[in-house]
Amino acid sequence: MLTSISLCVHHSTKIRKLGLDRPRVDFEPGYNAVIGPNGSGKSTLLKAIASCDLCRPEMAGEREGIRYVTTETLNPLADGSFSSREEMVQAIRSMFRSHGQGVLDSLRSQSHADETIVLVDSPETGQDHRNSELIHEGLLRMAGRYQVIVATNSLVFMRGGNLIDLGEESLPRLVGATRELLTDFESSAEHTAPREGKQK
């Protein structure tokens, strides 16, 4: 399990909230959601965990396997090459589905090797609310066996785990903006609702 990571100069300067004075991020077991506005460094943090030799991860126990996935790498048609029959079948199925449905199917059928840490960048991309909920439920189940760290802007994926805010009060701001949007939508819907006409 990843307990924390001390970021190298290159990555710490790309994460606004950290800078050079405190380039460390802590994690919890199970489900972790990295949140913050666009440009705050969510994807940068996941990439640093996945592949930077200069960043210093601290693990509870031995060095563990890490798997990094994005909606692009989950797209079965991404590069046209398949390492198994299952991947080929998945790609053929996705030819008749939307990108979002193909990604959802891929997430549901992920096979795992020796990794114990799974990083997922923007699982909400291309998904409607219902599919996002299904993916979130799957990630929470996965977090019972693996440590799961997602980078997200979606309220759906911010539930049920440890929040790591790379912005300034990102969750309250997002909840407030969502409420405001809902109020505006309900107000405009009342004015544009079709009126029942007389039947002939």
Structure description:
With 200 residues, the protein is of the alpha/beta class. It contains six helices and eight strands, in the order βαββαββααβαββα. A five-stranded parallel β-sheet has the order 5-6-7-3-8, with helices on both faces. The chain has a three-stranded antiparallel β-sheet with strand order 2-1-4, with no helix packed on it. Helix 5 links the parallel strand 6 and strand 7 (147-151). The longest helix is centred in the last third of the chain and has 23 residues, at 170-192.
Outline of this structure?
The chain is α/β, with parallel strands linked by helices and 200 residues long.
Using brief descriptors, characterize the structure shown.
6 helices, alpha/beta, single chain, Rossmann fold, 200 residues, 8 strands, 20% strand
